[in-house]
Each structure stands twice: as C-alpha cells, then as structure tokens.
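Postdoc handover notes: sequence design on the structure in folder B. Input tokens:
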C-alpha cells in the first residue's frame, strides 16, 4: 500500500534521486522546499513551501503524510564544517522531529552517520543528537548509519577499497572496517525505499552491512 511521504532535503544528492523512486513505487510525496528551490524538485512530488530550519514554517503542512524522511544536511561533510553542521544539520533535525511528532507521523526515517569513528567528531556529535531526539520523541523510526556514500561526484574514496579489503579480513580491524565501510548511492536508495515500504515498529538501526544488503535482490531495480 502506498504511503504519504513528507521529505526534507528533496533537492539534494540523495533526495533528488529518491523522490522519483518513491513516486514510481506508488507512494505520494510531499517535498519541503524554499520558494526559490521549488523548481529544482523532481517531477511527481507536491512542493510544500517552507524552511527546514524553521519548524513553524512547515509543521502545519505535514499532514496527511504518515512517513517523514529527513535528508537535510551540509553537502560534502568535512572536519572543517563543524559550525555548519550545528547551524544546518542540527537545527533542521530539531525542527523536523518536533514538527513530525506534532503531526502524528507514524514512521520517521533519518540518515545519520556511522559511529564511533576517529574523525568527523562534530558531524558525528550532531547526528548522534538527532538520534537522541528521535528516541526521546517516542516515534517509530528507522535510522540509517552510512559512513561515505559513493556516487556521481563522490568517487574519490574508491582509492581506499584495497585498504578496506585488507582491514575487513584482519581480526583486529574487521569490525571497524565493516562499520565504517563505503556504501553506494544505489545501496542507500534501496535501503531508504525499503525503510519506507516496511515501516519500523519501535526503533530500527541500519548499519553499513545492512545498508549494503538491502540492495541484494531488490525488486524494481535501483540504478
């Protein structure tokens, strides 16, 4: 049965690819966007004007959605962007969780990040706070924890694949190499589609191995 999905970050790297797939699977998509960004939303969704950093601008526009997908984030995260993570990622997830809870959302989908890790501490701290907000809200939620998503414009970590291959086979580094492994945009999209199709009851966390596995034998073909 198709669901009504409210999505933030619909013009971004993942959101712009996810929306057409959700529509193709029979879901109704309502996508939040500022007035000057509405034209960048993919065809097939309903644009909802608002500011992801301001709960009051969209909290009364979420219904009749029953699923909320939170994809707002600073592009190309790096250790130098700590202030941006706090100003964008953190403020937006605070607004989204509060607004979704108020709207009676049945299932919240949140893209977090793999942790713990020896780097990107500010980014991990912000995303971890987002997870804590979801837990405190009491909403059913699926949290995805990728480390780096490979795809168009994001291919440079392919050079690290041999290192990952070795580390995943050494007992001392196997767990961290798998938890902080690379996933492809295809695998992320498949995991997100699966999360929407099959809502969690309670809290469900998908680490890197589960995100990778979601694309295996996925019906409908995720490019």
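Designed sequence:
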């Amino acid at each position: 049965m198709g669901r009504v999905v409210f999505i933030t970050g619909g013009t971004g790297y993942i959101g712009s690819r996810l929306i057409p797939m959700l529509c193709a699977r029979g879901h109704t998509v309502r996508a939040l966007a500022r007035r000057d960004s509405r034209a960048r939303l993919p065809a097939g969704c309903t644009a909802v004007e608002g500011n992801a950093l301001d709960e009051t601008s969209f909290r009364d526009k979420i219904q009749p959605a029953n699923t909320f997908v939170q994809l707002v984030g600073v592009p190309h995260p790096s250790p130098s962007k700590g202030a941006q993570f706090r100003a964008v990622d953190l403020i937006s997830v605070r607004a989204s969780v509060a607004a979704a809870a108020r709207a009676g959302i049945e299932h919240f989908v949140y893209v977090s990040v793999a942790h713990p890790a020896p780097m990107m501490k500010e980014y991990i701290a912000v995303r971890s706070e987002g997870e804590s907000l979801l837990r405190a809200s009491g909403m059913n939620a699926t949290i995805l924890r990728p480390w780096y998503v490979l795809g168009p414009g994001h291919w440079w970590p392919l050079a690290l694949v041999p290192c990952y291959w070795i580390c995943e086979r050494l007992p001392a580094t196997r767990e961290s190499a798998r938890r902080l492994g690379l996933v492809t945009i295809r695998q992320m999209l498949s995991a997100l589609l699966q999360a929407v199709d099959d809502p969690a009851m309670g809290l469900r966390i998908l680490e890197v191995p589960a995100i990778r596995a979601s694309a295996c034998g996925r019906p409908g073909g995720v490019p």
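Context for whoever picks this up: The chain has one domain: 4-148+183-214. Don't rerun without checking with the PI first.
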